Amino acid sequence: QLSQIEGVGQVFITGQQRPAIRVQAAPEKLAALGLTLADIRQAVQQTSLNLAKGALYGKDSISTLSSNDQLFKPQDYAQLIVSYKNGAPVQLKDVARVVAGSENAYVKAWSGDQQGVNIAIFRQPGANIVDTVDRIQGELPRLQEMLPASVDVSVLNDRTRTIRASLHEVELTLMIAVLLVVAVMALFLRQLSATLIVSAVLGVSLIASFAMMYLFGFSLNNLTLVAIVVAVGFVVDDAIVVVENIHRHLEAGQGMREAAIKGSGEIGFTVVSISFSLVAAFIPLLFMGGVVGRLFKEFALTATATILISVVVSLTLAPTLAALFMRAPTHHLHQKPGFGERLLASYERGLRKALAHQRLMLGVFGLTLALAVVGYILIPKGFFPVQDTAFALGTTEAAADISYPDMVEKHLELAKIVGADPAVLAFSHSVGVSGSNQTIANGRFWISLKPRAERDVSVSEFIDRLRPKLAKVPGIVLYLRAGQDINLSSGPSRSQYQYVLKSNDGELLNTWTQRLTEKLRSNPAFRDMSNDLQLGGSVTHIDIDRSAAARFGLTTADVDQALYDAFGQRQISEYQTEVNQYKVILELDAQQRGKAESLAYFYLRSPLTSEMVPLSALAKVSAPRMGPLSISHDGMFPAANLSFNLAPGVALGDAVRMLDQAKNEIGMPASIIGSFQGAAQAFQSSLANQPWLILAALVAVYIILGVLYESFVHPLTIISTLPSAGIGALLLLWMMGQDFSIMALIGVVLLIGIVKKNGILLVDFALQAQREQGLTPHEAIYEACITRFRPIIMTTLAALLGALPLMLGFGVGSELRQPLGIAVVGGLLVSQMLTLFTTPVIYLQLERLFHRRHPAPDAPALALHK
Question: Are 106 and 404 in contact (CB under 8 A)?
Answer without folding.
Answer: yes
